[in-house]
Design a protein that fits this description.
This protein is of the alpha/beta class and 341 residues long. The protein is built from 17 helices and 8 strands. 47% of the residues lie in helices and 13% in strands.
Length: 341
């Protein structure tokens, strides 16, 4: 962990809480460190999350490379998956030592692989276990411990179960939650279908904020624009988490986030961001990365704008070729905008 006095720890916690006014959801296979660097260049303020990292991988598997990140990515949260309190506590300690500003417990992922490990959305059925996990993690770290959950699973009645779930984790020391405003169906729907088919219920998330006014509550699910995010904030929620829209149309969501959500800074120009990514790409290629590992996250940078198709085509066709480097990105930019980075 970084060497911090009490004031330093408080500053980190405050930074993460303030940043949580808008966050980019943890998304498996998408929000890796290359993706997060792009997102950070588009917004200096937004809270970013890692992909979910399982506690067993860190504690039993020793896969500490999964914690790698750049200092520029902060404010940055680590999302953990697990259901063993002591194992999660140790994984949280490792995450805090690696410098993360927040440790988040996944109680929302519905995939079969996650269910087989008895964590993710299935934990919605055992709020007492989640509370035990949160308490164990809180004992081991000074940074915030937060929870991301659904409104319920399977045949649960969200009005009946969600307040009890929130009360249990809050009493254990969690004062920030992100609620995906859909149920998760653990059998019969794929993870992709679980992101679209169960109906959204935004009102219940707002009801939970009214019932627990002392908690910091963010909403997630189906939010595709900054205008929608501002509507939820104006109605009284503390934060909004955006997922796929932030990945596929990152400029639309993130380039204006700082002035519109946080009231600071200026709108970021995606052309300028490409120029800033070139130095990062040079550094990463020198370390052995392949260009496509980075540029696959950049394909949506000009989504909805003239030249977007040319941008995607040049990068998609060329980034996998041996020796591909920053010059391909410059070529794609010229094809998309007529400008060089």
């Amino acid at each position: 962990m970084r060497s911090l006095g009490l004031n330093g720890v408080n500053a980190l916690n405050n930074n993460a809480q303030n940043a949580a006014r808008l966050s980019v959801a943890p998304m498996m296979d998408w929000t890796d460190r290359h993706c997060r660097m792009l997102h950070r260049l588009l917004s200096r303020e937004t809270l970013l999350y890692t992909e979910m990292v399982t506690a067993p991988a860190l504690v039993r598997g020793g896969a500490l490379h999964l914690l790698d990140h750049s200092p520029q990515e902060h404010p940055l949260a680590l999302q953990l998956g697990g259901s063993d309190p002591q194992e999660l506590a140790e994984a949280a300690r490792l995450g805090a030592r690696a410098g993360y500003d927040e440790i988040n417990l996944n109680c929302g992922c519905p995939s079969d692989r996650v269910q087989s490990g008895a964590f993710g959305a299935v934990l919605m059925k055992t709020p007492e276990l989640v509370a035990e996990c949160v308490a164990a993690m809180r004992e081991r770290v000074d940074v915030d411990v937060t929870v991301k959950c659904r409104i319920g699973v399977d045949d649960q009645d969200p009005q009946a179960v969600l307040p009890g779930f929130i009360a249990a984790v809050a009493e254990a020391g969690c004062d920030r939650l992100t609620i995906h405003a859909r149920k998760a169906w653990l059998k019969g729907l794929s993870p992709k279908e679980n992101r679209d088919i169960p109906p959204l219920d935004y009102d219940i998330v707002h009801q939970m904020k009214a019932a627990f006014p002392h908690l910091h509550i963010s909403i997630n699910g189906g939010i595709t624009s900054l205008a929608q995010a501002l509507e939820h904030l104006d109605r009284g929620l503390d934060g909004v988490m955006v997922g796929r829209a932030a990945y596929h149309q990152p400029s639309d969501i993130l380039s204006a986030a700082d002035p519109e959500i946080y009231g600071c800074g200026a709108r970021r120009d995606p052309v300028a961001v490409v120029g800033e990514m070139l130095e990062y790409i040079d550094d990463e290629l020198a370390k052995g990365a392949r260009l496509h590992q980075i540029t696959r996250h950049m394909l949506g940078l000009f989504a909805g704008r003239p030249g977007a198709r040319n941008w995607r085509r040049v990068l998609s066709e060329g980034a996998n070729r041996p020796g591909a480097g920053p010059e391909l990105v410059m070529q794609a930019l010229e094809q998309a905008t007529g400008l060089a980075a």
